[in-house]
Design brief:
single chain; two-stranded antiparallel ribbon; Phosphorylase Kinase, domain 1; Aminoglycoside 3'-phosphotransferase, Chain: A, domain 2; 5-stranded antiparallel β-sheet; 9 helices; alpha+beta
Length: about 350
């Protein structure tokens, strides 16, 4: 497994500039213990720090509050997602906090002026808990989720699907066609001036062949529905749902298929490496059954949405691969489809298998 460079910014300079901004918000406030998580997505930058705020006059002690900085992506790092709209991500968290029971971190500040840190950003609280690892994937073993009992994993699975059910209680404007058109535009940006991906283009063509007769009503879509974007407590219950930069609108099945596909991808990597993985966890039929029980809505057109989730992920992986080539982290393969780790399963779906 390789990591993807997410920034070209100087972390020490970033900390100094953040200190100046914090002090303007609250005299004497400073950032401490600034660090960038190893397993972060190459989109908006995530920076962890402790906010130190002086106590009232008469004491030298400080109040320490764990925080997270979400900073619009560095253009020099070739962000995998489209240009970051930090304000939209902030508003998405606000909406979820106001209109649902989904646990999200408390928002502290939004800064739309790029001057203080070089790009817009927001600050929110950092919630304590456990997150299933992406590197190495939790399906490889030696982590808390893999080592959990079947009952504990089933509890986490049900609670995670429950998060989606609650998010989808919010209606939203925008349909499936708009969502797919946006993915086509994103793919076009990725391959502009570069070799296109034959498997992605076949997958787009296949989508039209299996387009749902009735995609269903649009709801608020998380966009990055995966267990690796949720903080869980010791009882395997969600305590914070993160990563809202891909949020939007569309059928419920967008999130359900993404949840299933992202686990299936990790499962395929594990078995290809000789590990047993977690084959029954987040099974498509299990997820659909839990969702139907919780909401009364039976997920529709699973083959279309599974293909579309795999296609969306392929666009991300192609962009990641081109980024790695740019920074000298890998050689450009003769076939650009080799940049897509799940090309085999995507090819099969694109051929209708």
């Amino acid at each position: 497994m390789t990591t993807v460079r997410t920034t070209t910014r100087d972390p020490e300079l970033l900390c100094r500039r953040l200190d100046l901004w914090l002090n303007a918000k609250h005299p004497g406030a400073r950032c401490r213990n600034v660090r960038v998580p190893v397993a972060v997505g190459p989109s908006s930058e995530t920076v962890l720090f402790d906010l130190a705020v002086p106590h009232p006059a008469g004491t030298a002690r400080q109040r320490i509050r764990p925080c997270v900085l979400r900073l619009a992506a560095d253009p020099e790092a070739s962000a995998v997602l489209p240009p970051s709209d930090i304000a939209a991500e902030y508003r998405a968290v606000q909406t979820v906090a106001a209109r649902t029971r989904v646990p999200v971190p408390e928002l502290l500040w939004l800064e739309t002026d790029p001057e203080p840190l070089g790009a817009p950003f927001f600050v929110m609280e950092r919630v304590a808990g456990r997150v299933p690892p992406d590197v190495m994937p939790y399906t490889y073993g030696s982590n808390w989720l893999f080592d959990a009992t079947e009952e504990e994993r089933a509890r986490l699975e049900r609670a995670t699907v429950g998060v989606l059910a609650e998010i989808h209680s919010v209606p939203a404007e925008g349909g499936l066609r708009e969502h797919v058109d946006a993915q086509r535009a994103r793919y076009a940006r990725v391959v502009e001036g570069r070799a296109p991906s034959p498997v992605i283009e076949r997958a787009f063509a296949r989508l039209e062949d299996v387009w749902p007769a009735d995609p269903g009503p649009s709801v608020l879509s998380w966009g990055d529905a995966r267990v690796g974007a949720i903080v869980y407590d010791a009882d395997f219950a969600p305590v914070a749902v993160l990563d809202w930069q891909m949020s939007g609108a569309g059928p419920r099945e967008l999130d359900l298929a993404w949840l299933v596909h992202r686990h299936r991808h990790f499962q395929e990597l594990a078995t290809a490496s000789g590990f047993p993985g977690m084959p029954v966890f987040l099974d498509r039929d299990r997820v659909a059954g839990i969702y139907a029980e919780l909401t009364g809505h039976t997920p529709r057109d699973p083959d279309f949405h599974t293909l579309y989730a795999a296609l969306r992920h392929a666009v991300v992986m192609l962009d990641e691969g081109y980024r790695q080539v740019r920074f000298g982290e890998r050689e450009m393969p003769d076939d650009p489809d080799d940049l897509i780790l799940h090309r085999g399963s995507l090819e099969a779906m694109a051929e209708g298998c």
